[in-house]
Specification:
With about 650 residues, the protein is an alpha/beta fold. Helices cover about 30% and strands about 20% of the residues.
C-alpha cells in the first residue's frame, strides 16, 4: 500500500485505534512544546497528577508570551516555570530567547517525529516533516507523562505546489490565498500536506509560514516532506545528523485535492476581524494606517525581516506611523544586527522590541483607538491586539514595509524601486544556549518548585450530575474565538496561574456582565451557553475552557466546535453538545432554562440526548461526539480526576 507523508507519520506512531477518518486514534508523542501563557497550568497539572519526570524524547518550556514585567506576576511565574522545567526534566528557554515555534524548529524539530504543543501554532513545525499539532495544556501534560494523544483520525488534504513567487509576493500571500479559498473552518479534521515541483522554491522558513497558519484554517496540522531543503536548513543549524528523508510513496493518494500555483499569486490582505476575511490588496489599497508590524511566529525567518529592512533602507517611514520590529529569537536578532538590518530599521524611524510574541498576543504594541494596524501576525480576532475596538489587517512583510513608507495600505508592486533580492545566510548564528538542557534525574528530583503569591492550585472538579436545570447565560453567533471567550494581552495573561482571578475576564468582549451573573448562580447548579458555527476557534489556551468551568459552565451547545476547544471542554468536564437541528438555536433565548435528565447514563447509551426547554413546550435534540474514553472522563468531571483515579488503583 502506498502512503502519503501524513499517513506514514500517523502509522509509525499509532498505538490505539485504526486509521479510519473520523474515528478516535491514540498517537505516541515524541516531543512537546509549552509556552508561558499555557505552560504554567501544564506544570501545575503535572504536579497535581504526581508525575515524576518527562517520558518524551524531548520536551521544552518556552517563555515568549508574557514578557512585560509591569509588576511581580510575570517574573514570579518565569521563575516557577524554570524550576518546573528543572524538576520535570524539560528544556527551558528563558525570557528574551525567542518565540517558541521558530526556536523549536531550529534546535529540536526532527523529521519523522510527532510534536504536541499547548499552543495552536505548534503546527508550524510540520514544515520539518513532523506531525505537529496544537492541543490543550492538559493533553500536553498527559503526553509529557508518556500517555498517548487522542484525536480523531484526520483526512489528508493534498495541495500540489507549482511555480515560483513573482516579485513582491511571498509565503504569507500563499497561506492567505488558502484562507481566501477555504475560510477559518474549511479544513476541520484535515491535515494539509503540501507536495509537488513548486516545493523547491519554498525555503524551510517559507514552509514554516504556511504551516503556522494552517491553524487559522481549522486544520489538525500541516505537513511538508523532509527533503533536501530540510537537510540544508538542519545543516545550517548544526543538526544535519538528525535529518532523514521522508516523502510520499509513489502512487500515494489524498482524500481532498487542491493546487497552489505560486506564479499566479499576488499580494493578499486579511481584513478585520478574521484571518479568513481575505481579499486581494487592490480591494483595500489606500486605507490609512497607524501601525505597521513586522515579526511573529507567522513570519519568523531571516528573509522576512531582511526584505523589509532593504525596502526601508535609506528611506523614512511616513509621519504618524508606528513601525514595529519584533525579532523572533535572540539568534535572529544577532544575525540581523551583524548584517546591518537593525540599523536600517532604526534609521527609517522604526521601533525595536525584544524577541518574543509581544503585540501578536496583545502583550504591548496595542494600536490606537479607531486606527488601522497592519501586521504580519497570524490572527486578527476582535480585541486580540489589546485594543477593544481594534482594526487589524494581516499581510506579508513586503506589504507591511512598503505601507509603512506611504502611511497607507499600498500594493508593493507599484513601488518606484526594485524588489530587493535577499540571499539566505550561508553561516547563520548557531545559539545552542537558546535552550537550557534538562537536569539529570537524580539532580532534578531535588528541585523545589518556586511558587510566587499569584499561583493558585487548580480547584477540585465536580463529577457530571445526572439531572440538571441550567439557565442559558449567553447566546452567541458564529466564529466565537478563544480570544473572545477569554482574552489574552497584558491585562489578562499575568493571571494565567490564578484561575479565580483570570475568570473575571471571561467573555468580557461578548458580555461584560457574564462573570457577575455566573457567580450569582454558580453554587445553584451552574449554567449553559449556546452559539453558532466554529465555536472556540483560535488559540489552544485551556483557560478558555477552565475559566467558564470555574464559573459554573456545565454544558456548551453550538452548531459546531473548533477542534482544540472541543477537546479542552471535554477534558475539563464541560459537556460539548451540538444541535441536531441547527435552526433550534434561533428559537432559544438568553435566560431560557434547559432541563437535563438521566444525563450520565444517557451519553453512554447514545450519542443523542433530548433536553426540554422549561415552560416552552419545546424539546431540543442534541448530540455529542465523545468516545467511550471521553465519556468516562466526562462522568468523572474531567481528565485530572480520571488520571488521579487511575494512579490510585
Amino acid at each position: 500500500m502506498s502512503y502519503n507523508v501524513t499517513q506514514k507519520l500517523i502509522k509509525d506512531h499509532l498505538v490505539k485505534g485504526e486509521m479510519t477518518p473520523g474515528t478516535e486514534i491514540g498517537l505516541k508523542i515524541d516531543q512537546t512544546l509549552t509556552q508561558d501563557a499555557t505552560g504554567t497550568m501544564v506544570m501545575l497539572e503535572l504536579e497535581a497528577m504526581g508525575i515524576e519526570r518527562a517520558q518524551t524524547e524531548a520536551s521544552a518550556q518556552y517563555v515568549d508570551h508574557n514578557l512585560i514585567q509591569e509588576d511581580s506576576k510575570n517574573p514570579d511565574d518565569h521563575l516557577f516555570l524554570e524550576s518546573a522545567a528543572k524538576r520535570f526534566g524539560l528544556h527551558f528557554s528563558r525570557p528574551g530567547n525567542g518565540v517558541s515555534h521558530p526556536v523549536h524548529m531550529q534546535r529540536l524539530a526532527t523529521p519523522g517525529k510527532t510534536l504536541l504543543g499547548s499552543d495552536s501554532h505548534t503546527c508550524a513545525n510540520g514544515c520539518m516533516g513532523m506531525l505537529a499539532m496544537g492541543a490543550g495544556g492538559i493533553d500536553v501534560a498527559m503526553a509529557i507523562a508518556g500517555e498517548p494523544f487522542y484525536v480523531k483520525m484526520p483526512k489528508v488534504w493534498g495541495v500540489k505546489v507549482t511555480g515560483e513567487f513573482p516579485d513582491w509576493v511571498s509565503a504569507k500571500d500563499a497561506i492567505l490565498e488558502m484562507l481566501r479559498r477555504h475560510g477559518v473552518k474549511g479544513a476541520t479534521n484535515h491535515v494539509f500536506e503540501y507536495y509537488g515541483p513548486g516545493l523547491k522554491n519554498l525555503t524551510a522558513m517559507d514552509r514554516h509560514v504556511i504551516a503556522n497558519m494552517g491553524a487559522e484554517l481549522g486544520a489538525t496540522g500541516t505537513v511538508f516532506p523532509s527533503d533536501e531543503e530540510t537537510k540544508r536548513f538542519m545543516k545550517l543549524q548544526g543538526r544535519e545528523d538528525d535529518w532523514i528523508e521522508l516523502k510520499a510513496d509513489d502512487g500515494a493518494s489524498y482524500d481532498v485535492h487542491d493546487e497552489l500555483n505560486l506564479s499566479e499569486l499576488g499580494p493578499m490582505i486579511a481584513k478585520p476581524s478574521s484571518p479568513g476575511n481575505v481579499v486581494p490588496i487592490e480591494e483595500v489599497e489606500g486605507e490609512s494606517i497607524y501601525q505597521s508590524y513586522i515579526g511573529s511566529s507567522a513570519n519568523p525567518g531571516y528573509r522576512d525581516f531582511a526584505v523589509a529592512s532593504k525596502i526601508v533602507e535609506g528611506r523614512r517611514i511616513a509621519d504618524g506611523v508606528s513601525f514595529d520590529l519584533n525579532p523572533t529569537s535572540r539568534q535572529m536578532l544577532v544575525d540581523l544586527s551583524q548584517e546591518g538590518h537593525i540599523a536600517n530599521f532604526l534609521q527609517s524611524g522604526g521601533r525595536l522590541h525584544q524577541a518574543g510574541c509581544n503585540g501578536c498576543i496583545g502583550m504591548g504594541q496595542a494600536p490606537a483607538t479607531g486606527r488601522n494596524s497592519l501586521r504580519t501576525t497570524p490572527r486578527n480576532f476582535p480585541g486580540r491586539s489589546g485594543t477593544k475596538e481594534d482594526s487589524v489587517f494581516l499581510c506579508s512583510p513586503e506589504v507591511a514595509a512598503v505601507s509603512a513608507l506611504t502611511g497607507k495600505i499600498t500594493d508593493p508592486r507599484k513601488s518606484d524601486f526594485d524588489y530587493p533580492t535577499i540571499k539566505e545566510l550561508e553561516e547563520p548564528t548557531i545559539d545552542t544556549r537558546l535552550l537550557d538542557k534538562p537536569l539529570p534525574y537524580e539532580e532534578a528530583k531535588e528541585v523545589e518548585l518556586v511558587k510566587g503569591p499569584n499561583i493558585a492550585s487548580i480547584p477540585e472538579m465536580d463529577e457530571l450530575p445526572n439531572d440538571m436545570e441550567l439557565p442559558i447565560l449567553l447566546k452567541m453567533g458564529n466564529d466565537i474565538s478563544t480570544d473572545e471567550i477569554l482574552a489574552g494581552g497584558a491585562r489578562v495573561l499575568p493571571y494565567r496561574s490564578n484561575l479565580p482571578e483570570i475568570s473575571k475576564f471571561t467573555f468580557e468582549i461578548v458580555d461584560e456582565t457574564y462573570h457577575d451573573r455566573a457567580m450569582e448562580i454558580r453554587d445553584q447548579g451552574g449554567h449553559a451557553v449556546v452559539a453558532g458555527m466554529n465555536y472556540g476557534q483560535g488559540s489552544s489556551r485551556e483557560h478558555a475552557a477552565l475559566a467558564p468551568k470555574y464559573l459554573g459552565l456545565k454544558v456548551a451547545i453550538v452548531k459546531d466546535f473548533a477542534r482544540i476547544h472541543w477537546q479542552n471542554l471535554a477534558n475539563f468536564g464541560v459537556l460539548p453538545l451540538t444541535f441536531v437541528n441547527e435552526e433550534d438555536l434561533d428559537d432559544l433565548e438568553q435566560g431560557d432554562v434547559l432541563l437535563f435528565k438521566g444525563l450520565r447514563d444517557g451519553i453512554k447509551q447514545s450519542n443523542q440526548v433530548e433536553v426540554e426547554v422549561k415552560g416552552k413546550d419545546k424539546t431540543l435534540k442534541l448530540e455529542h461526539a465523545l468516545s467511550e474514553r471521553q465519556i468516562e472522563i466526562m462522568q468523572m468531571g474531567g481528565l485530572i480526576n480520571w488520571v488521579k483515579n487511575r494512579l490510585e488503583k
